[in-house]
Amino acid sequence: MPEIDRRPVPYLDLTIQFRRLEEEWLGSIRDTGANGTFIMGPNVQAFEREFADYVGAPHAIAVANGTDALVLSLRALGIGAGDEVITTPYTFFASAEVVTLVGATPVFVDIDPRDFNLAVDQIAARITPRTRAILPVHLFGCPVDLAALMKVVKDGDVKVIEDCAQAFGADHRGRRVGAWGELGCFSFYPTKVLGCYGDGGMVTTNDHDLAERVRHLRNHGATAPFVHDTIGYNSRLDEIQAALLRIKLRTIDEAIAGRRRVAAAYMERLQDTAVVTPRAPEHGGHVYNLFTVRVPRRDHVRQSLLDAAIGCSVCYPLPLHLQEVYRELCYRPGDLPVSEQAAAECVSLPIFPELQEAQIDRVCEVVLGSL
Question: What is the structure's pLDDT at 156?
Answer without folding.
Answer: 79
